Amino acid sequence: MPKNKTHSGAKKRFRVTGTGKIMHEQPGMRHNFESKSSHRTRRLSQDKVLAKADVKDVRRMLGR
């Protein structure tokens, strides 16, 4: 039987914690920092837990 492959885009965007939660980076942290406040850039730099509605799909893409 062939093995299932991990979705290449998903493995770059999500990571699974030790307890099994799926984390992702927040959008808006790539460019235009001049117009963003330091408070905003600090807030955006923190990873967030993935929304419950998306967990099933992402788990399948990650092969878990």
Report on the architecture of this protein.
The protein is of the alpha+beta class. Helix content is 33%, strand content 12%. It is built from 3 helices and 3 strands. It has helices spanning 8-13, 38-44, 55-62, and strands spanning 14-16, 22-24, 48-49. The longest helix has 8 residues, at 55-62. The two termini are 18 Å apart. The model has no long low-confidence stretch (mean pLDDT 96).
Write the layout of secondary structure elements.
Blueprint: H1 8-13, E1 14-16, E2 22-24, H2 38-44, E3 48-49, H3 55-62
Antiparallel strand pairs: 1-2, 2-3
**Gyration radius, to the nearest Å?**
15 Å
- Report the portion of residues in β strands: 5-15%
Whole-number average pLDDT?
A: 96
Ranges where pLDDT stays below 50 over 5 or more residues in a row are none
- Helix-strand sequence: HEEHEH
Helix amount, in percent? Answer: 25-40%
Give the strand tally: 3
Tell me about the biggest sheet? 3 strands, antiparallel
| Main sheet: strand order | 1-2-3
Number of helices: 3
**Broad shape:** elongated
The rounded distance between the terminal residues' Cα atoms is 18 Å
Sheet/helix structural class: alpha+beta
Summarize this, please?
With 64 residues, the protein is α+β, with helices and mostly antiparallel strands.
